[in-house]
Amino acid sequence: MPTNRFTSRLSETDDYKRTRLIQKIEHALEKMTLGELEAVSYDLFTKGYIEDI
């Protein structure tokens, strides 16, 4: 049976890519103003990624 790329486990390469992407996002967040961070927070809240602002 062929492997479904959407349901297969993350490979080490995917784990590495995910870790690097998180690091890049953290670095970008550190440079943002309070207003920009509030906008990101609101966006994540409305999409259900965080529970309260």
Topology (SSEs and partners):
Blueprint (H helix, E strand, L loop, with lengths): L11 H20 L2 H13 L7
Helix content: 55-70%
Helix/strand order: HH
What is the count of β-strands? 0
Beta-strand fraction estimate: under 5%
Stretches where pLDDT is under 50 for at least 5 consecutive residues are none
**Class based on secondary structure composition and strand pairing:** mainly alpha
Termini Cα gap: 45 Å
* Principal-axes shape call: flat
Residue-averaged pLDDT, rounded?
86
Number of helical elements: 2
> What is the makeup of the main sheet?
none
Q: What is the gyration radius calculated from CA atoms?
A: 16 Å
Could you give a short description of this structure?
This protein is an all-alpha fold. The chain is built from 2 helices and no strands. The termini are far apart.
Task: Describe this structure as you would to a colleague.
By secondary structure, the protein is mainly α. The protein has helices at 12-31, 34-46. The longest helix is centred in the middle third of the chain and has 20 residues, at 12-31. The chain starts with 11 loop residues before the first helix and ends in a 7-residue tail after the last helix.
